[in-house]
UniProtKB/TrEMBL annotation:
SMART domains: Cupin_1. Pfam families: Cupin_1 (PF00190). Residues 98-239 form the Cupin type-1 domain. This is OXDC decarboxylase. GO terms for cellular component: Golgi apparatus; plasma membrane. Gene3D superfamilies: Jelly Rolls. InterPro entries: Cupin_1 (IPR006045), Dynactin-associated (IPR053297), RmlC-like_jellyroll (IPR014710), RmlC_Cupin_sf (IPR011051). Transmembrane segments: none annotated.
Length: 245
C-alpha cells in the first residue's frame, strides 16, 4: 500500500506503457520496436477494457514466468530512495519529526542520504516529505512556511487543526484518513486531542531547504518595546514569556 504525492496544481496527467503503445500507429510501432513478424505481430495485441495499471489480469501466473530484479548500485538507488523510518529523529516540544528533504550542509546525513538530498535539489519541482508525531494531548505550535504548500495525511490518532488568517481562525477535527492542505504562507497548527499520538505523513512543494517560522520564534524575535506598543502592555510584562530553547 502506497500513499503518493505529486508536485502539480493542475490535473494530473499520466501516460502508461499500454496507453502509449495503443496510441501509436501500427507501422510506427513495428519500425520502432522491430518485433519478429512486424506489423502482423503488432496487430495481435488487443487493448483491454480495464486499465491494466490498476487491474491485474486474472491469468497473471500464465503470463509471467520470471519477475526478478537485480539491485542497482547505491549511487543510483539513493537518488530515488530514502529510508525515512530509519532516519534521524528531530524532537520538538510535544513531538518528533523525521525528514526526507534537501539540506544545504548535509548535517546528520549518511553518505547515501546525502545522495538523495542532492538529487532533490537538482529538480525545480519536487517534494520534501516528513512524518510528524505529536504526542497524546500535545501541541504542534502555530507556524508557517515561506517557500512551500503543505499537504498532510493522518495515519493514526485524533486531533484538531487550525488555520490562522487575518482576524479569523478556522479550526476542525481530524482523524485517520483525513487529508489537510495549507497554502504557502498560511499560519496553521496541529494538536492531539486524545491519549494516542497523532501521526501524519506530510509533503511540502519544494526541493529547496524548507523555510519555517514558528510563533515562538517571531514573537520572541520582536523587540519588547515594539510588543509593548502593539499590545498596550508594559514592556516588563513580556519578560514573563519564556525564551524558546
Amino acid at each position: 500500500l502506497f500513499l503518493l504525492f505529486f508536485s502539480t496544481h493542475d490535473e494530473l496527467q499520466t501516460l502508461d506503457v499500454d496507453d502509449a503503445f495503443f496510441s501509436t500507429p501500427e507501422d510506427v510501432l513495428a519500425r520502432a520496436l522491430k518485433p519478429e513478424g512486424g506489423v502482423k505481430f503488432i496487430r495481435t495485441f488487443q487493448k483491454q477494457g480495464e486499465d491494466q495499471a490498476i487491474n491485474l489480469p486474472p491469468n497473471l501466473d500464465e503470463l509471467v514466468q520470471n519477475a526478478t530484479y537485480s539491485q542497482s548500485p547505491d549511487p543510483l538507488v539513493w537518488q530515488f530512495f530514502y529510508d525515512l523510518q530509519g532516519s534521524q529523529e528531530y524532537p520538538f516540544p510535544g513531538g518528533i519529526f523525521q525528514w526526507a528533504r534537501y539540506r544545504r550542509n548535509g548535517t546528520g546525513l549518511t553518505d547515501n542520504q546525502k545522495i538523495f538530498s542532492e538529487s532533490l535539489h537538482k529538480h525545480e519541482n519536487t517534494l520534501t516529505l516528513a512524518t510528524l508525531r505529536i504526542f497524546g494531548n500535545s501541541l504542534g505550535q502555530p507556524h508557517f512556511h515561506f517557500n512551500a504548500h503543505e499537504m498532510g495525511y493522518v495515519l493514526s490518532g485524533c486531533g484538531q487543526a487550525g488555520v490562522i488568517l487575518s482576524g479569523t481562525t478556522s479550526t476542525f477535527s481530524i482523524g485517520i484518513g483525513d487529508l489537510l492542505f495549507f497554502p504557502v504562507g498560511t499560519q496553521h497548527f496541529l494538536q492531539s486531542t486524545c491519549q494516542e499520538d497523532l501521526v501524519l505523513l506530510l509533503a511540502y512543494s519544494t526541493g529547496n531547504q524548507l523555510e519555517t517560522l514558528r510563533m515562538s520564534q517571531y514573537f520572541h524575535g520582536t523587540a519588547d518595546h515594539i510588543l509593548a506598543q502593539l499590545f498596550f502592555k508594559k514592556q516588563p510584562e513580556f519578560q514573563k514569556f519564556p525564551k524558546p530553547a
